Amino acid sequence: MHSIPKFSVVIPFFQEEENVEKVIAAVVNVMKTVGELYEVICIDDGSTDNTWSILQQEAVNRPEIRAFQLSRNFGKESALCAGMDKARGEAVITMDGDMQHPPELIPEFIRVREENNANVVEGIKIDRGKETFFSRLGAKTFYAILSKFSGYDLTGASDFKLMDKYFMNAWRQMPERSIFFRGMCAWLGFKHAEVPFEVAPRKKGKTKWSFFSLIKFALSGVTAFSSLPLHIITISGFIFLIFAVILGAQTLYNKLAGIAVSGFATVILLLLIIGSLLMIGIGITGEYISRIYNEVKMRPRYIVSQSVDKYGSNSEE
Ligand code: UDP
Ligand code: MG
Predict the structure, then answer these.
(1) How confident is the model over 52-97, as pLDDT tens digits?
(2) Residue whose CA is closest, atom 5 of ligand 1?
(3) pLDDT tens across 170-214, in order?
């Protein structure tokens, strides 16, 4: 029988060969000072560089490290999910594998949790680090839209969190396939506490977010948390109905009065406006249908292809 660790630290890695060793060493050092039983769960999210071989090596050398490789790149959210599923600890700590989430803060997370008797402690970004003007603006707009639509204010939220066993049990009851970690954590409720932190600049390598992946992330965030866009279509339909009644009455009056020739520009404008609104409406409906389609397929959130893990079978799963 292996004894249950008190803490599981979950770290996703994608193309992080230059950071893996540093991050693991830093986390292990910090966890040693905590003085409780712990494990570090490293997920390789389908990297094509040396990330996996380094992780394998680390897991072989250090007993407290468990490494899992996903069969392809599933995205950070799914990688986090895999790690949280594997975690055996009473509390789970999630953090990035690029040193942007300072491991030295882990004891602070633990302290804040005990002090506030909280179920979740969240790292809140007080400074978004070195970001371009556009990514700052993008993040701001996204959070503004999301909080309007869903009622959850996630400004400054990060994936640097400590979650207790009650929270983890609740998390495990969420069956959806497309995951939006921060939003789902906000939805769960529970008693939250915060630890502010400054985002350190990325140690090595570069961010995996491209402009389009960010837009996709934002879209899935909004569609996962709000059906308001669907209602907006209905509402704009009604607003147009009002105009239709007014214009219809005017047109009828003109016809009856025998003055119904001019107004060609109006016709074209109305055609264009209504045409584009219809298309947007169909598009928004389509976004939701595609989400439903993805959910009903019920595919697993991730596939583990290999692992170095003392608690499971030691190779393929
Ligand atoms: N990551 C991942 N899968 C991906 C993209 C990123 O597991 O498809 C990991 C990455 O290795 C890092 C963390 O998620 O540990 C945060 O990624 P990144 O630094 O690119 O995001 P940012 O800090 O810019 O939000
Ligand atoms: Mg980063």
Answers:
(1) 999 999 888 888 899 999 999 998 989 999 999 999 889 999 999 8
(2) 76
(3) 999 998 888 888 888 888 889 989 888 888 777 667 777 777 777
| CA 207 to ligand 1: nearest atom | 20
For residue 57, give the amino acid letter: Q
pTM of the model: 0.79
The residue range of the domain holding 279 is 228-296
For ligand 1, what atom is nearest to the CA of residue 74? 8
- The answer to whether 119 and 163 have CB atoms below 8 angstroms apart is yes
Mutate which of 23, 48, 73, 76 for ligand 1? The one with the most ligand atoms within 8 Å of its CB, which is 76
Residue 41 lies in a domain: yes
Q: Is residue 152 located within the same domain as residue 238?
A: no
Residue 91 falls within a domain, yes or no?
A: yes
Cα 257 to averaged position of ligand 1 atoms, centre (Å): 68
Provide the phi-psi class of 43: left if phi over 0, else alpha when psi is between -120 and 50, else beta. Answer: beta
Dist. CA 280–CA 220, nearest whole Å: 17
